[in-house]
UniProtKB/TrEMBL annotation:
InterPro entries with a match to the protein in the record: Ald_DH/histidinol_DH, Ald_DH_C, Ald_DH_CS_CYS, Ald_DH_N, Aldehyde_DH_dom, MeMal-semiAld_DH
Location of the Aldehyde dehydrogenase domain: 14-476
Keywords for the protein's UniProt record, in alphabetical order: NAD, Oxidoreductase
One family name in Pfam for this protein: Aldedh
Family: Belongs to the aldehyde dehydrogenase family.
UniProt-listed GO biological process terms: L-valine catabolic process; thymine catabolic process
Catalytic activity, EC: 1.2.1.27
Highest taxon in the source lineage: Bacteria
Protein name per Swiss-Prot or TrEMBL: methylmalonate-semialdehyde dehydrogenase (CoA acylating)
One MF term in the entry's GO annotations: methylmalonate-semialdehyde dehydrogenase (acylating, NAD) activity
Organism: Vibrio gelatinilyticus
């Protein structure tokens, strides 16, 4: 069985641990690798190695850091399909979804190559007589990232390229369920020319995470995952006075107005709800049908019923399996609760079977109508290919419903009315809004801006806010005295 290496000070090496976890293929539950839970000594070596590397890396010229990212994005593009294949094998994602995962990460690396313009300071001459004030953007030190299973390329690439381009060093703890993609990302980063120690990778569970959160050399913590863990990460890290960005769960709504383009609504709603098996924090899990648009629920059902899950290399598959047996059991339990609490199960994927893969974590497209906000399926993030339908009378009712939800990651409205769209974007209390766009994840020159219970912290992931998160501003006020210039009385003559 393949054992996953740790990556410390430029060395991909086998851990000395006695504690191992199994990495499984979600389509078959076959064990594909053994994952080490790093020892305390190995954790210490990773963090202290990053701290030592920072002493040199922080002084490397900004253009040189940018060139590293240019080389890295070139290698990532060159190995794009290879990375997507590896990612598919450990996550179960179909190949198209895996390629999208890798590409969205590459886009962030390209933005990291623009680091010079993003770390420019400011200057004001003569704030007082012969006194100038200017700001300098400087790196913080050792940063760490704790990443989830659902985007093993994109989310690590949200973090370490920008942090390192800013002059920091980075310790990555990828999800114990999908560690192989992260190791390959590190191999390519080293091949691009990254110095030893600038990026370190350790593996494990809560014990290893707690070590990172408490270590005095770690300056920032970046996290993406479930709400309870995000809350824990934020509370624990701030207890040790660290800067934190913790991206949490969601309950994303798509509001469907009666004047919307029906075909666009149906196609986008299906893809946004069951794509990637619903295992993404920006998935649309609630459709809010306003007025007569509720007549389209049957069309959504018909379109969803045509989508079938399957193996990652099946060109006819619409999405892959859930990540684990535990995830499948949880989703099936929530589906059953929805039935028990009175929601109408229009389409039931509970008994889904995929030929040739009887042991996979399969759940088929599932559609509920007649959903009430008091139901468990509405109150909890399902994180599966399940779409809930709620009917309201007006746009005002839709706004009230979405704003009452404790989460605020993403939302969208489908309408042909500019006035309705503007009212929605202005009044909605959600951080990322799509207008006739189902999943409004911004490109990396903006930031990923979840609100409310979907985010804990102040500065968001990637974009300009990430640069601020991974740096500190130093303000200098300077005064120079002309009379101190050597040979001042003859300065004009000397210049000639």
């Amino acid at each position: 069985m393949k054992s996953v290496p740790i990556y410390i000070d430029g060395d991909f090496r086998q851990s000395a641990t006695q504690e191992w976890l199994e990495v499984t293929n979600p389509a078959s539950n076959e064990v594909i690798a053994a994952l080490p839970c790093a020892t305390e000594q190995e954790m210490s070596e990773a963090v202290e190695g990053a701290a030592m590397a920072f002493q040199n890396w922080k002084d490397v010229a900004v253009p040189e850091r940018a060139r590293l990212m240019l080389c890295y994005q070139h290698l990532l593009k060159e190995h794009h399909d290879e990375l997507a294949t590896l990612l598919s094998q450990e996550t179960g994602k179909i190949f198209a979804d895996a390629k999208g995962d890798v590409w969205r990460g590459i886009e962030v690396v390209e933005q990291a190559a623009n680091i010079a313009s993003n770390t420019m300071g400011e200057w004001v001459e003569n704030v007082a007589s012969e006194i100038d004030t200017y700001s300098i953007i400087q790196p913080l030190g050792v940063c760490c990232g704790i990443t989830p299973f659902n985007f093993p390329a994109m989310i690590p690439l949200w973090m370490f390229p920008i942090a390192i381009a800013c002059g920091n060093t980075f310790v990555l703890k990828p999800s114990e369920q999908v560690p192989l993609t992260a190791i390959r990302l590190a191999e390519l980063f080293e091949q691009a020319g990254a110095p030893k120690g600038v990026l370190q990778i350790v593996h494990g569970g809560k014990k290893q995470v707690d070590y990172l959160l408490a270590h005095s050399s770690i300056r920032t913590v970046s996290f993406v995952g479930s709400v309870p863990v995000a809350q824990y990460i934020y509370q624990k890290s701030t207890q040790y006075f660290k800067r934190v960005q913790a991206l949490a769960g969601a309950k994303n709504h798509m509001v469907v107005m009666p004047d919307a383009n029906k075909e666009q609504v149906v196609n986008n709603l299906v893809g946004a709800s069951v794509g990637a098996a619903g295992q993404r924090c920006m998935a649309i899990s609630v459709a809010v049908f306003v007025g007569d648009s509720n007549e389209w629920i049957g069309d959504v059902k018909g379109a969803m019923s045509a989508i079938k899950p399957g193996h990652w290399d099946d060109d006819n598959a619409g999405f892959g399996p859930l990540i684990s047996q535990q995830a499948k059991s949880r989703v099936l339990g929530l589906i059953q609760q929805g039935k028990d609490q009175g929601a109408v199960c229009e389409l039931d994927g509970s008994q889904c079977v995929v030929e040739g893969y009887p042991d996979g974590n399969w759940v088929g497209p599932t559609l509920f109508s007649g959903v009430k906000t008091s139901m468990t399926i509405y109150q909890q993030e399902i994180f599966g290919p399940v779409l809930l339908c709620i009917e309201v009378d007006s746009l005002e009712d839709a706004l009230a419903l979405v704003n009452a939800n404790p989460y605020g990651n993403g939302t969208s409205i489908f309408t042909s009315s500019g006035a309705a769209a503007r009212k929605y974007q202005h009044e909605i209390q959600v951080g990322q809004v799509g207008i006739n766009v189902p999943i409004p994840v911004p490109l990396p020159f903006f930031s990923f801006t979840g609100w409310k219970g979907s985010f804990y912290g102040d500065l968001h992931a990637y974009g300009k806010q990430a640069v601020r998160f991974y740096t500190e501003t130093k303000t200098v006020t300077a005064r120079w005295f002309e009379e101190d210039i050597a040979g001042a009385p003859n300065l004009t003559i000397q210049l000639k």
